[in-house]
Amino acid sequence: xxxxxxxxxxxxxxxxxxxxxxxxxxxxxxxxxxxxxxxxxxxxxxxxxxxxxxxxxxxxxxxxxxxxxxxxxxxxxxxxxxxxxxxxxxxxxxxxxxxxxxxxxxxxxxxxxxxxxxxxxxxxxxxxxxxxxxxxxxxxxxxxxxxxxxxxxxxxxxxxxxxxxxxxxxxxxxxxxxxxxxxxxxxxxxxxxxxxxxxxxxxxxxxxxxxxxxxxxxxxxxxxxxxxxxxxxxxxxxxxxxxxxxxxxxxxxxxxxxxxxxxxxxxxxxxxxxxxxxxxxxxxxxxxxxxxxxxxxxxxxxxxxxxxxxxxxxxxxxxxxxxxxxxxxxxxxxxxxxxxxxxxxxxxxxxxxxxxxxxxxxxxxxxxxxxxxxxxxxxxxxxxxxxxxxxxxxxxxxxxxxxxxxxxxxxxxxxxxxxxxxxxxxxxxxxxxxxxxxxxxxxxxxxxxxxxxxxxxxxxxxxxxxxxxxxxxxxxxxxxxxxxxxxxxxxxxxxxxxxxxxxxxxxxxxxxxxxxxxxxxxxxxxxxxxxxx
Length: 533
Description:
This protein has helices at about 20-30, 55, 80-90, 135-140, 150-160, 185-195, 220-235, 255-280, 285-305, 335-340, 345-355, 355-375, 385-390, 390-405, 425-435, 450-460, 470-475, 480-495, 505-515; strands at about 10, 35-40, 45-50, 95-100, 110-115, 125-130, 145, 165-170, 200-205, 210-215, 240-245, 310-320, 325-335, 380-385, 410-415, 440-445, 465, 500, 520.
């Protein structure tokens, strides 16, 4: 143990004296190479803690019992930690992987893991070791500027805990549009990495649009924007920078409601910049959004009840021969509804935020079922929100449909979306099991887009997993990103699911994912969304 400052502690199961000599030797051996040792349940909860917790993280080991294992790493790294823990569950081993501690300095550490042997009385549990690392190599691997997914995950984690503000920075070029990746983007990356404290999480949500998350409002936000503009001007670049914060305090909102509202704000900014945030009412914070959303609720309800939308169908093909496997049904609001509520993503997000996702999902199921009946053998995948999957009432209604029309289960599929995180996994598991019993195939959509997807892979038995298209885009740019995509393919293989790669636009991309082992592909190379053939 690094400093000998902390002893060993056990959880509710009893004192260490009850452990066997073999277990004591096992712990002593583990701690010779690590600062901290954790015993973690398959659900990711800390059940045993030992080592230098007090000196490293300010609390004794027993204070960490029952907490999520991800809490021992910094907020920006927790999405990556969830993915690493999924690898441990699937393969029984996690090689040393760099992370940072959740201390003020962001201390670099290496985390490794192994399934505990049954001889230690801990079958089904996992050992995690946390060891110090030199600072510079890890900082190079984990820069202060995180990815957009890390910003979203950090914001949603803080939403239920009383975070004060979410800050936005929007950069536009001389034409008023966000600049593409290039000198301006690199300049902003450097400025944010250098100008924000260790407790902040910052990253690009979309081209030229950045989010900043911290426990309190970002200090000197206007000064930071001015420095970015000055640096751009000094480099001979023409860029305007606007920075604003959204207060997150709102009386009467539950943590779940805060989380959904905050997710909506992040997605609105990524799609339409600060004007979209203002249009949603967020200029006055979460309270302003709630007021604006309530005024739109009736109109949204009428649009869903009146089925004022259509479905566009995009083919998903077999990579081996290009034959169509099935079609994904994509929601398309009619023009008048789109003018009121924005893009299909905005429409769906608002329905989830206002607790109307079950109504919307049922309307989509009915429309997809009608298309499957007239589609001459076509199989159709409908997107279902996690909020609907965890609803016993929605499950009962869907099962009545399938039981009354048994052939429909083989023609209808479900893609589980992560736009709203599932809160009651036990109910969702019941729904998935009941659908599979009736012959319906299920797919996890946009795998890797958020931390919850890794948890879904552990919890849900599905037939297919669709990898988020950003991983393919990145894999075409570097060998390292290609390795990440290959690891995801291998992880999905371990649970026995088929792999779908989305956003394939070129033959080179198709060859890449085929070589990595993808079973199915989707993207403009194979067909754009349109009418069902």
